[in-house]
Write a structure and sequence with these properties.
The chain is mainly α. The chain has two domains: 25-365, no CATH class; 374-463, no CATH class. It has 21 helices and five strands. It has helices at residues 4-8, 16-46, 52-66, 95-100, 104-117, 119-143, 146-152, 162-174, 178-185, 195-208, 212-237, 254-259, 263-272, 289-297, 315-330, 335-342, 344-355, 367-370, 374-383, 396-399, 433-437, and strands at residues 391-394, 407-410, 423-427, 445-450, 453-457. The chain has a five-stranded mixed β-sheet with strand order 2-1-3-5-4. The longest helix has 31 residues, at 16-46. The chain starts with a helix and ends in an 11-residue tail after the last strand.
Length: 468
């Protein structure tokens, strides 16, 4: 006979085998997402679809850490210290693994793992909020969200470390586990210099929820840390002794600058679309504002849209806000809103699946992703003629194929009057013809032209006196 507790809260009593399945399900989903992310990323690299910017640059930095050296990135320039570009000491965590597996694929696999892990807290929270099947649907919708997929489709970026930190932090905030949320938020300052703004927003949210002392401490920590990073640390490593992404004062009206052109409003709408715009009903959504503010304020149009990796850090925020709002939506007095809350899980998954038709994971359904590519194999054979530890100037689309074993500069910026790499590797592209034409005047000789790649060599004796 059912107890009073079972009648009042039937979900409180769950058969043991179902409880075990519920505990394992988020991890199973994470494993599936990891396999999917890794398959797409590795396939792209093997088919020569990765580049020096940014995969090659980050590999050079991690390669330096793995050798107990500074993160020098010749692709950014001779002796360029990458901490003078962005602040991401968290990359040191990849050094031990890279030392064992010195390949750019190590970075791609690590990114796939970190993004997949972020689905665990989101899915667990979703299952508590929307039930087992509904929660799994929302967890899958999160894993398929366009922000995460765009990150997978854009080589490697340090923000992959921020995504799981934010996922755990936001779920703890939704659960009102304030100190645990802070513990997950504070390491964000080691990922990238804009993330202290998000940490400060976490502190502001805590103050909004009545945790004034804790919130004020977090805000103070974020403010001090952010200023030290941007004003002191990055300029100390930068060759110009400045923060390279500082934006000057503009005479333009601030509101106009933030909201125009229309692509910015489109990005804001796309952020809310995966959650059916229900995330707006939770105060957690306020935590997207710091990232959107610096992106929309920037004069770099690459930050404004939905491409690349820039929105990955926002996906945990909007989905946590969505889940935080869901109980109130389902108990709303407005019939349409109440209905939307009940069908939110399948609708969110449907939106994610439809969007995926244009996103990187669609390649999992394409035959070339799973087949050996003879053209790529032929290209790798050509590149193998360059000896290990050589100095090379390579085009952007070839650089990441060489950074694990050579010192790689970016062609056509190099060779120049100061830097003369021994080898030049280029693709047969029209926009590189003029630069290639000048190589013979610098003493380079064509050694091989095959499979769309041309390799030039200059004897070491002719490069004396230059940086190589």
């Amino acid at each position: 006979m059912a107890t009073v507790r079972e009648l009042i809260r039937p979900e409180a009593v769950v058969p043991q085998h179902l409880a075990n399945d519920r505990e394992r399900s988020p991890y199973t989903l994470a494993v599936i997402l990891f396999a999917a992310y890794a398959a797409v990323s590795i396939s792209r690299h093997l088919r020569f679809q990765t580049a020096g910017y940014d995969l090659g640059i980050f590999e050079q930095a991690v390669r330096g850490y793995a050798r107990f050296e500074a993160p020098i990135t010749p692709l950014k320039g001779p002796d360029f210290h990458l901490l003078g570009d962005h602040f991401h000491p968290v990359l040191m965590l990849l050094a031990p693994v890279y030392r064992v597996f010195p390949t750019p694929i190590t970075l791609l696999v690590a990114q796939a793992l970190l993004l997949a892990v972020s689905a665990i807290p989101i899915t667990r929270y979703a299952m508590r909020t929307a039930g087992r099947l509904g929660g799994l649907g929302i967890g899958l919708a999160y894993g398929l969200s366009w922000g995460l997929q765009q990150a997978i489709g854009f080589d490697f970026h340090e923000i992959c470390f921020a995504v799981p930190l934010l996922a755990f932090c936001l779920v703890r905030l939704a659960e009102q586990r304030w100190h645990a949320a802070v513990a997950w938020a504070l390491p964000l300052v080691l990922v990238k210099e804009d993330l202290p703004l998000t940490v400060a927003a976490v502190g502001g949210y805590l103050m909004l929820r009545g945790q004034r002392r804790l919130g004020a401490s977090v805000v103070a920590f974020a403010a001090v840390t952010g200023l030290v990073i941007v004003v002191v640390v990055i300029p100390a490593f930068n060759p110009d002794h400045s923060y390279p992404y500082a934006v000057g004062v503009s005479a333009q009206d601030p509101l106009t600058r933030l909201l125009t052109p229309s692509v910015k409003l489109g990005t804001a709408a796309m952020l809310l679309l995966p959650t059916l715009f229900l995330a707006l009903r939770s105060p957690l959504i306020l935590l997207v504002l710091p990232t959107l503010a610096w992106r929309f304020w920037s004069t770099n149009h690459m930050y404004w849209g939905t491409q690349s990796q820039y929105s990955a850090v926002l996906m945990p925020i909007v989905f946590a806000a969505f889940l935080d709002a869901l109980p109130a939506v389902r108990s709303s007095g407005l019939a349409p809103l109440k209905w939307l809350g009940r069908v939110a899980a399948p609708l969110a998954l449907a939106v994610a699946l439809v969007c995926s038709m244009w996103l990187p994971l669609r390649h999992l359904t394409e035959t070339p992703t799973w087949q050996a590519n003879p053209a790529a194999a032929a290209r790798r054979a050509v590149l193998a003629t360059i000896p290990d530890d050589a100095t090379v100037a390579a085009t952007n689309l070839l650089a990441a194929q060489l950074t694990s074993r050579c010192t790689v500069y970016l062609f056509p910026s190099y060779p120049n009057d100061k830097v003369r790499p021994e080898w030049i590797v280029v693709t047969d592209r029209r926009d590189e013809t003029e630069a290639i034409a000048g190589l013979e005047e610098l003493g380079y000789e064509l050694t091989i032209r095959r499979s769309g790649i041309a390799i030039y060599h200059r004897p070491p004796a002719e490069t004396e006196g230059f940086v190589r």
